Amino acid sequence: MEVGDVREVTTGDCSELYYLDTGMYDTNEYGAVYIIDDDRPAVVDTGIGTNYELVREALAEIGIDEDDLEVIALTHIHLDHAGGAGFLARDYPNADVYVHPIGTDHMADPSRLVAGTKAAVGQQWQYYVEPEPIPDERIVEIEDGDSIDLGTHELRVHAAPGHAPHQVVFEDPQNNAVFVADAAGIWVPEIEEIRETSPPSNFDFEQCLADLETLEALGPDVLCYPHFGPRFVGDDLEAALEEYATVLEEWVDAVAQKRDELEDDEAVIEHFAAATDMADVWGEEKASEEAKLNTRGVLGYLEHRE
């Protein structure tokens, strides 16, 4: 899939669902935005904002005009998911932004969010743009148990705070699908493997495992990953989620062991940046920076646990 491509999701029983490759970090098949073409059209997550015009083009291609979009649903406020929300809210006047209560102030005034993102992503900030503030009256708070009615479809909100305390996943019962945010890891379709995601500053390993139990209880056939793309799991849901639990456990253990060995956090970060095996898929720069980000998150978790 190439940057800017829009595909209909035909996985499982999905209908009226599309996804776009936003070209996040100048990398193919890393960042997806989902579009639901229902009575109340919706966008699920928005990317980092840099290529938000690709979302506009995708909406137009699907047939959703500027006055038609009504819902911008954010799984969480990390800027690789929420960075484009303000631009879309500005250009689509009838669309409200749905976000966890922790995120509302950050969407209205993104300055602290920007500062935190710069600290977390390091050199990757070059791929971002400053997000557009969203007027308070355009922000709708959502919490566990809420539902966003789209018409034929609805987005049922389930808390999944392991990756970040403001993270939710959206269940679409009509499609028997869940928009998993970063609760189920990073799906790499090119190699059909799942990889860890553990960014600072709120990564919580035990809660991540609990979030996987939440996903299993929902029982979807299709997992819609923002990183990257829809994945049919069907009867293999439990195995798929257990696989990610194992990946995450082994990753946290590896960082902990290397931390004990080197006794220097920066050395640990550089070790895993050099040891990444994802350069052939994402490119050397992105693979290295991703490893640094995830290592920082685990180191923060280990320090907090102590």
UniProtKB/TrEMBL annotation:
It comes from the Archaea. Residues 30-227 form the Metallo-beta-lactamase domain. InterPro entries: Metallo-B-lactamas, NDM-1-like, RibonucZ/Hydroxyglut_hydro, ST1585_MBL-fold. PANTHER family: ACYL-COENZYME A THIOESTERASE MBLAC2, METALLO-BETA-LACTAMASE DOMAIN-CONTAINING. This is Beta-lactamase domain protein. It comes from Natrinema limicola JCM 13563.
